[in-house]
Specification:
Elements: E1 2-6, E2 9-11, E3 17-24, E4 32-38, E5 45-50, E6 57-59, E7 67-72, E8 77-82, E9 91-98, E10 108-109, E11 113-117
């Protein structure tokens, strides 16, 4: 099993980034996918998730309305479109996978991609 996250980088406040996570080694369609993040000195926190069918999504209050999670099952890929970025969004972003959206944190994890929001 492998989850390869990419798309992080340095962006100015108010800017946008699109993260991608390509999965392999399991039946992608059957898995819920999610994004978590961990800022320096802080605990890992939930950002967004999407069920296997892609018909339902969930967001942390801190990113609701600014971030959009989506998936493209034909490419075994989940995306996180991040708009109106703030310095508080600076963190390492990780993708996760689990058959149950309630247990994402107990599933497979990617290696993370660093997002830095700074002027």
């Amino acid at each position: 099993v492998q989850l390869q996250a990419s798309g992080g980088g340095l962006v100015q406040p108010g800017g946008s980034l699109r993260l991608s996570c390509v999965a392999s080694g399991f039946t992608f369609d059957d898995y819920a996918m999610g994004w978590f993040r961990q800022a320096p000195g802080k605990e890992r926190e939930f950002v967004a998730s999407i069920i296997g069918s892609g018909t339902r999504t969930y967001y942390a209050d801190s990113v609701e309305g600014r971030f959009t999670i989506s998936r493209e099952d034909a490419k075994n890929t989940v995306f996180l479109q991040m708009n109106s970025l703030k310095p508080d969004d600076t963190a390492v972003y990780y993708c996760a996978a689990h058959p149950s959206i309630l247990n994402l944190s107990k599933g497979y994890w990617g290696q993370g991609t660093l997002v830095t929001v700074s002027s």
